[in-house]
């Protein structure tokens, strides 16, 4: 994957290609070009891209189409963003700005620590499911970890882990495991829901039609067969919620046993 700041997209004007600049820039520390009384701001561009992605998905986003929605030429957008990849990094960080920050108070109590993590991860999971285009984007933008909203989230999570008694390096490891599980699980869920949306069918209807094929395909795999034929939840959405929490609790049980052995 090309670096965010060195990608040589054909739609990137030469003056915005940052590969010739010293050091490594990010969308947040690269100076914006200034024009007298600019008609647009970076915030407007990001907000409109966000709305377009939510309404029509990742395939609909182009600088030309975005410019048309803003009543501006595509070239005017490059005053504020270097290229489409940089724009996506900004929009992803915009989503992270929706999430509540972890609270470190009382985290020396494992019950409080766990409750805060559950609250934060459920919010993160909901954001990915609410904005399914993130499934595609997350793997393609290289500077998300430098975004101000992501750094605020990370700083708060690290403070939570330190308040619980983890050293900084181990706190970072714990955060990585928890966030990785959350984003990964939410991405699979969002992809599934997107497929449902494209099919035009409800989730229960889709599963009812899919289940006979699944049962037949797993007949030679007895454990999978038993899993799919005995654990189909009556309430599909509730089943997804409980499945996420079961997996998260497995992870938190292991982390808790390391931090509070014998509890």
UniProtKB/TrEMBL annotation:
<feature type="compositionally biased region" description="Basic and acidic residues">
    <location>
        <begin position="8"/>
        <end position="18"/>
    </location>
</feature>
<dbReference type="Pfam" id="PF02909">
    <property type="entry name" value="TetR_C_1"/>
</dbReference>
<keyword id="KW-0238">DNA-binding</keyword>
<dbReference type="InterPro" id="IPR001647">
    <property type="entry name" value="HTH_TetR"/>
</dbReference>
<dbReference type="InterPro" id="IPR050109">
    <property type="entry name" value="HTH-type_TetR-like_transc_reg"/>
</dbReference>
<protein>
    <submittedName>
        <fullName>TetR family transcriptional regulator</fullName>
    </submittedName>
</protein>
<keyword id="KW-0805">Transcription regulation</keyword>
<dbReference type="GO" id="GO:0045892">
    <property type="term" value="P:negative regulation of DNA-templated transcription"/>
</dbReference>
<dbReference type="InterPro" id="IPR036271">
    <property type="entry name" value="Tet_transcr_reg_TetR-rel_C_sf"/>
</dbReference>
<dbReference type="InterPro" id="IPR004111">
    <property type="entry name" value="Repressor_TetR_C"/>
</dbReference>
<dbReference type="InterPro" id="IPR023772">
    <property type="entry name" value="DNA-bd_HTH_TetR-type_CS"/>
</dbReference>
<dbReference type="InterPro" id="IPR009057">
    <property type="entry name" value="Homeodomain-like_sf"/>
</dbReference>
<feature type="domain" description="HTH tetR-type">
    <location>
        <begin position="39"/>
        <end position="99"/>
    </location>
</feature>
<dbReference type="GO" id="GO:0000976">
    <property type="term" value="F:transcription cis-regulatory region binding"/>
</dbReference>
<keyword id="KW-0804">Transcription</keyword>
<dbReference type="Pfam" id="PF00440">
    <property type="entry name" value="TetR_N"/>
</dbReference>
<feature type="DNA-binding region" description="H-T-H motif">
    <location>
        <begin position="62"/>
        <end position="81"/>
    </location>
</feature>
<feature type="region of interest" description="Disordered">
    <location>
        <begin position="1"/>
        <end position="40"/>
    </location>
</feature>
<dbReference type="GO" id="GO:0003700">
    <property type="term" value="F:DNA-binding transcription factor activity"/>
</dbReference>
């Amino acid at each position: 994957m090309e670096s965010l700041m060195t990608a040589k997209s054909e739609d990137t004007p030469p003056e915005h290609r940052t590969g010739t600049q010293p050091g490594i820039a990010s969308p947040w520390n690269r100076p914006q070009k200034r024009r007298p009384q600019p008609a647009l701001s970076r915030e407007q561009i990001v907000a409109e891209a966000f709305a377009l992605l939510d309404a029509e998905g990742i395939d609909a986003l182009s600088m030309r189409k975005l410019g048309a929605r803003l009543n501006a030429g595509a070239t005017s957008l490059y005053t504020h963003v270097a290229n489409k990849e940089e724009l996506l990094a900004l929009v992803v960080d915009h989503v992270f700005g929706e999430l509540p920050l972890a609270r470190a108070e009382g985290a020396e109590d494992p019950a409080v620590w766990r409750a805060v993590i559950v609250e934060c991860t459920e919010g993160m999971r909901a954001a990915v499911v609410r904005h399914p285009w993130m499934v595609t984007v997350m793997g393609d933008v290289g500077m998300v970890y430098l975004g101000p909203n992501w750094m605020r989230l990370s700083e708060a999570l690290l403070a939570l882990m330190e308040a619980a008694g983890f050293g900084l390096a181990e706190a970072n490891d714990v955060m990585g495991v928890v966030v990785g599980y959350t984003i990964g699980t939410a991405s699979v869920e969002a992809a599934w829901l997107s497929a449902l949306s494209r099919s035009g069918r409800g989730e229960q209807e889709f599963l009812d039609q899919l289940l006979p094929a699944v049962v037949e395909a797993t007949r030679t795999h007895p454990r999978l067969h038993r899993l799919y034929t005995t654990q189909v939840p009556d309430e599909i959405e509730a089943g997804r919620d409980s499945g996420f929490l079961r997996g998260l609790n497995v992870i938190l049980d292991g982390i808790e046993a390391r931090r509070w052995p014998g509890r």
